[in-house]
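Here is one such protein, fold included:

. . .
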Amino acid sequence: MFYFKLATTNLKKNRKVYLPFLLSMIFLVVINVILQILLKNKGMDTLPSAASAKQLFGFGQYVILIFTIIFSVYTNSFLLKQRKKELGLYNILGMGKKELTRMLLWETLLSYAITIVCGTIIGSIFAKLCFLSLKKLTQLGDQFIYSFSIESIIFVTLLFLLVYGLLFLWNIVQLRLANPIELLRGSQHGEKEPKTKWLTAITGIACIGIGYYISITIKSPLSALSLFFIAVVLVIIGTYELFTASSIAILKLLKKNKHYYYQPNHFISVSSMIYRMKQNAAGLASICILCTMVLVTISTTASLYFGMENVMQNRNPFDVTVGAQGDQFTKEQMEDINTELNHLAKDNDIEFLDNKLMQISNNVLLSRKADGEYIGADDTTFDNSGMFNFITAEEYNRLTGEQLTLSDSEIALYMLTGTYKKSMIKMADHSYTIKKQIDKIDFLQQSDYGLIDTFFMIFKDEQQIKILMDSLPEKSGKGRVYSLYANLKGTTENRLAFGYAAREYLIQRSPDLSFSSIDLDREDSISFIGGFLFMGIIFGLTFTLAAGIIIYYKQVSEGTEDQARYDIMQRVGMSHQEVQKTIRSQILMVFFFPISLAALHLAFAFPLIQKLLVLFGLTDWQFFMVVCCVTVISFFFIYLLMYWQTSKVYYQIVERKVGRV
């Protein structure tokens, strides 16, 4: 009972450093409980895209699990640093390492009990609220029912038992490696003034520069997907090296500037930051990376959710599309299908608009050689390729009412995606003169949505298309397809009813028929994109809390270290007002640099992220820019609030002695 009472007393007396740690751990428990309850919710199986939603939440679960372990270790290191002096005093007063281990064990058990009890209760309550929020975001009906899972609570309880066990073992290792004098000095043990590491500074700037260069020069969305993580890793490495080495170099340059350095507020700010910049930089870099993660996560998920209509329009150029292979269906059969769909539309009070049936080639994928020739798909890379569709002049004239005439070596060209400015095009050893560049085709819709350039080519007749097709390898995508499409006019309910009826009819008619409906796609996608936004909010809150906790611990640790320094400076003639001005200058310099650099990271990452969003179908970059600006401004005010609240702790610690002078 002695060690239990001692541990209880320690938790009460050290509540200033223990309370943020416990609150952060409780928050992590709450987040894990919410995700586990939602993931294991039986109502999740009723979602239109249950597999995708579960996959999304499963991914989010693992991200939060990894973050929980990393952040727990990080906050525990701050806590242990603040407690070393107290542990050293116990050691000098007669408590051996064995007795201190028992005391720490009880402290760990008490912390674990507080964390689990509070976290599971709060998490269980907020899980219901989050479920309702998710239901609102995904616009799901009554079939999405909430169900509480005791299995989720057991999983989280065991998870944090493991986390606290790891923290306890780490603390014991640190305790046994340190001698009583080192423990007694604790957090007051500063670092030597670091040397300027110019190579590291240059490397850091170079890493960030390369990451920025990748982002602003990348052309293809598919290239963006492959290079995204490379750019992220480079920027993260560069950020840590920039804060660690470049900040020291900048501070030393300021120190050499006598007009700047030998002023009371600048003198203390610069000298104190140089003194402990190595440990200071790691925390600031972590804050910067977390802020960047918040900005990227929220802006990306919010853009997809609120720009969903742009995504739907790009993925579905027409309201309804039916596709069939030409070797499995005849034109007469496709006309019968079109007639039946028209009947279904009338039965559901829907009017067909722009209803067309056309015969074109399969999507033919070709790669572009250095000389501009397009060759077969055996050598195709998506970074340097094009997608082609071929149609006869007769079919084109039937659909448009024009009288286009072509020779064997001539084509007419319409670019669905991308541009082509040359007067000739060479494909698989065949050269064609582009007789006409078509700006608009009524039965096709040009779009900014496309991973690669998409060509729509009109040939003289079927024979010319066959000659070209025969010269291509099988992998290119040979064959003919029928494409039936229409736009719809009617209420949302009637359009959905028609979509379900049409899909059911086509499934019964033949499993080889493909069908897409913008209304069904919208209904199916809202659950995934809404869940995506929900996960973005969860990640954003978690990363924001992490940044806030790191800021708080930095204020506490730095306030403790600066306490004696400011006391000495005031004793040698520095006024109380000058001390306040110096403190304000130092805090502003330290804590507003990370958020500024995070905003800069987002600005340079904008082109890369914008191209990644094209993979989802979002092509409205102006809308994405507006969302980014709103996100940065909103998060800046949240960051300002965190700075304002945590800076009070720094002032209180420093002014204890300052106020007595």
